[in-house]
Specification:
Helix content is 32%, strand content 22%.
Amino acid sequence: MAISQNYGTGRRKSCTARVFLRPGTGKVTVNGRTEENYFPNAVLRMVVHQPLVLAELDGKFDLVVSVSGGGPAGQASAIRMGLSRALLGYNDQLKSMLRQAGLLTRDPRMKERKKPGQMGARRRFQFSKR
């Protein structure tokens, strides 16, 4: 028996999320852990569910997510983008709604590289006149 599922990849900062959308009851599994266990912050859980709430499909799908790299906020945003792309595979008519909400746009902001002769990207070593 083949499982009907939709897949989407999301990226943000240095995070990559692979999201599998399966028909179910609204259970979210992130890297083998429950959503409440992985994201103790309620705001990050809200960010993850944003595409489903917008499309009025919250509680109709189970999410199986594999995410790597970065921190909690970047991972939540990467999952949100992957979920939005997976929803497009489920129903292509959601595209204009998700696009208007800005959920299909990849956030291009990345960490600025460290420059030679400086402590960091912009922080310089302390200047000494003498």
